Amino acid sequence: MIRGLVLAFAAVLALAAPAAAQGQGQGQPPHLTLTLSPHATGGADSYLGVRMVLEHPGFKAGEGLVHLPLTLVGIPTARYDGEALTARDAEGPIPLSQSEEPPTPQGVYRRWSVGRATVGDVIISFHAPPRHITAATNNGPLFDLREEARAFLGAGVGFMATPVRPGPWRVHLSWELPPGSVGVWSLGEGIVDTVAPSEVLAFSYYAAGPLKRYPAAAGGHFSFYWASDPPFDPADLGQRVRALYDYMANFFDDKASSYRVFARGNPYLGTGGTSLAHSFMFGYHAPSKPTADSLQLLVAHEMAHTWPAMQGEHGDTAWYSEGTAEYYSLALYWRAGAIPLEKVIKTLNERADAYYSNPYRGLTNPQVAEKFWSDPVAQTVPYGRGWLYLVQTDTEIRQASKGAHSLDDVVKELRRRQVVGKPYGIAQWLELVSGEIGPAKAKAGYDHMVSGGLLTPLDAAFAPCLSVEPHPAKPFELGFARRSLNDDRVVRDLVSGSAAEKAGVRDGDVIVEVSDVNKVRADETLPIVLTLRRDGSQQTVSYLPRGAAIGGYRWVRNTKAPDSVCRF
């Protein structure tokens, strides 16, 4: 990701359920039969065939049939231009018209509408091509469908046109597979029967081909899938992730669900992951030689998205979805006894440095939301802001209750309300925090965070194990628009007087090669190195993308306190 850039689709996770568990005491939802047929050749003619049958939908002329984003947060989809998507019913082919739905901050959806009333079942067919990627492809959320080692891996929202009607549907998913292949959905391997809304069909993962898995035997509540042999030991990582999943699921009182993890390689620098329904996928850059140790906090973050969720617009609630994922990925790893104290402290300080050095730290939540999908640095604001606000809230709750309560009590109660169908939004968060520390303090702390106020760790945070001390941070300043590092790789909006300009970067330069921006941003001593092409010639420039030092904080070990008092 962009180190863990994740969309807050955690609310989707509670929407799917076994078919036998729904529809009781009310009319049964209509059937949706989905058949997926992989045709992987390794060439331009590869595709994943999709056949969707809707049971007697009775569409009226002009009614919306299916829709698919043209791009989602900058990630291109299959689109299905022209007549690439077709539909038919008992009377034959159905004429379809295309239109664009009102734009959202995440992207624009294309809608296919029927040109006449439908009769009987409606059959929708299309071939999903895998996305072509290169070393210059911009790292981002794992939504696109890709082919790797004659296998397909991707999210439904990147290739599957899903019903405009929200559902729920009685979904029957099956696969037409070549010998030696398996088909996997976020909700199960092979044939799957479940009740789910249209949103789950979009925001879930699909993989098919000669996949490898951990554990080697199919079945069980946890599986990890990959196509190419990675540089890390997948069995070792799989074992760690399964143990952490079991611990997290028990913590969040979720002992019945299953979980699937998917991995795929990237030809470009960076790692990242995206959490969707009962699953997540992560990408890795093989030449960078990631290890199970280096990946464990990434996968912990993605997995933690499975449970805490908050109702509301993404821009208003990203602090919670990303903040709780940051908080519990580390806290539960520690409580499970799977990470040493030294790494906990190192991670705390890396997260604090990332927050204090973020150039967008002082923006309000709405202002951050406006930049969220155009600048990966802005995307990380909710991570640090949400995490540090939750650390402060936990400290205040522990102080007010004299150690009897903690953040855990509030987060778990909010999730309990989600599970039973009660509201679980910002108002409920404030209600629960007010009950612990008082309404005035709860409201003041929340308003300060939302407005972009500087968050300072309380002295009691993680005490007596750790102590807080000042630690200046230098804001990351690339010197030109971050979007310049996207697919077209052209420098735009060069900042006058910036280190980039002083090093010789100019507007219109073509970026031939760039060092790993995520690594540079994580270490304020590292320079960024650019190979630029201008007027037919190339040159290499290097500069330190940092501004003047500003105030920040970090934690240090209190050597007088034993490890037994360390709690996170």
Structure notes:
The protein has 568 residues and is α+β, with helices and mostly antiparallel strands. It is built from 13 helices and 29 strands. A hairpin with a 7-residue loop joins strand 2 (31-39) and strand 3 (47-54). Helix 5 (341-356) packs across helix 8. The two termini are 25 Å apart. Mean pLDDT is 92; it is low at 1-25.
Short structural description:
With 568 residues, the protein is α+β, with helices and mostly antiparallel strands. 27% of the residues lie in helices and 25% in strands.
Strand order of the largest sheet: 1-18-15-2-3-11-7-8
Shape: globular
Give the beta-strand count.
29
DSSP strand (E) fraction? 25-35%
- Overall pLDDT: 92
Helix content: 25-40%
The chain-level structural class is alpha+beta
Low-confidence stretches: 1-25
Count the DSSP helices: 13
The largest sheet is: 8 strands, mixed
Termini, distance in Å? 25 Å
Task: Walk me through the topology.
Blueprint: E1 17-18, E2 31-39, E3 47-54, E4 64-69, E5 71-72, E6 75-76, E7 85-89, E8 92-93, E9 96-100, E10 109-114, E11 122-128, E12 146-148, E13 151-155, E14 162-163, E15 169-175, E16 182-185, E17 188-189, E18 192-196, H1 198-202, E19 205-209, E20 212-214, E21 222-226, H2 234-251, E22 259-265, E23 272-276, E24 279-284, H3 292-304, H4 314-335, H5 341-356, H6 365-371, H7 376-379, H8 381-400, H9 407-419, H10 426-437, H11 439-450, E25 466-470, H12 499-503, E26 510-514, H13 517-522, E27 528-534, E28 537-543, E29 553-557
Parallel strand pairs: 2-15, 21-22, 22-24
Antiparallel strand pairs: 1-18, 2-3, 3-11, 4-10, 4-14, 5-6, 7-8, 7-11, 9-10, 12-13, 13-19, 15-18, 16-17, 16-19, 20-21, 23-24, 25-29, 26-27, 27-28
